[in-house]
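Hey, resending since the last one bounced:
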Amino acid sequence: MALTSAPRRGDERPSSSAGSAPKPAPRTSEPRVSRPTPTGRWALIIAGGYAAGLAADASGVPAPYLLSSLLVGALLALCGVVRDRLPAPANRVSQALVGALMGSYLTPSALVSAAPVALPLTVVTAATIALSLVVAWFLARGGRISRPSAVLGMVPGGSAAIVTCADELKADVRLVAFTQYLRVGLVATTAPLAAHWMISASSAAGGHPAAGGGAGSGLLHVVAGSDQLTGLFALATIAVAGSWAGRRLRVPTPLLIGPMLVALVATLSGVVPGFAPVGVGQNAVFVLVGLDVGLRFTRQTLSSMRRLLPSILVCMVVVCLGCAGLAWVFAGVTGTPVTDAYLATTPGGINAVLAAAVSSHADVALVSTVQSLRLLVVILVTPMITRMLASRWSKPVGVPETTAALGTFPAPRSSTVSRPPTRV
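The structure tokens again:
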């Protein structure tokens, strides 16, 4: 028995039907194809987005690095080639650099020039938020989207912060994230094209586009100052110190607002050399912003939201058209160029709108000031408004929960409403 037990133990691993099959070749003898590491893979993706931006720039596409990288990211995500979002370090770096770029445009002269239109800007900001709330109310009347989810999904600005507080406000985090980033993608795609069309129409009518910050030329010119090493050190210091200060002060979207405030202080003081990203550095930042937006639109996300997508898109178009109307009124009242007013009031993506403003040579200081003001107001008042409206709006009887339209996704952890039993 001892002599036959050894072979039987080795024969018990395969199934009975595969007992006569030949043994597979050892793995060590098979040729292995080297695959790039995750870091190398992301480097190739970012390089591909930059190369697409170069081609789009040569073709005259507005905001080429933003639009091309957004399309590259969406294509990779929809084809299943990339199933992850942009790595967190790259996302943090892009937010901090965008914040530093925003702060560099808020010069004393720009703030003084924006002071006379402070009251119209406040009115436009309040009207934008009110328009978003009205559209959210109509969206929630359909019954397939809860009221908190509709409100948080429709408010313009502060996508990352709004998504973060969705769980606490009893909203569907997945639906809020999808709606917010769908709006960002829609604005990031249409804003450069609309701004380019407005500038072309103004030039044809004999007008002159607003002057904006120009990008430096040359591969080695990545910051605005003449001393590149000193400028890069100042930019890194502002990004790190601003991110730390934003977290300690608990400001909304700290990785963006913190560096913007530190850069604002550095710009107003005038003692810090040119640190704003330009040329290749600025283009690389816009590539990261575009990829971050595009990679969020996966097949699984679109499939789970397909029933809600038409109504959400209609509401998005209504909000965008309403903001364009407010921009037209604002431009007529204040004498601001229509392009600057449109970019300042469009329901961004502040990162995407800033990229469009820089590429179209708009008044970046005005755009950055208005977008930052609305970002702060939205993030500060949205939780209060959502709680107030959620307590007043009663849920209709028999309305299915939001997650019923979300395919196979599990219910959020914060959801406490039980589903009714299925009738057979």
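The chain has 17 helices and no strands.

Sorry for the duplicate.
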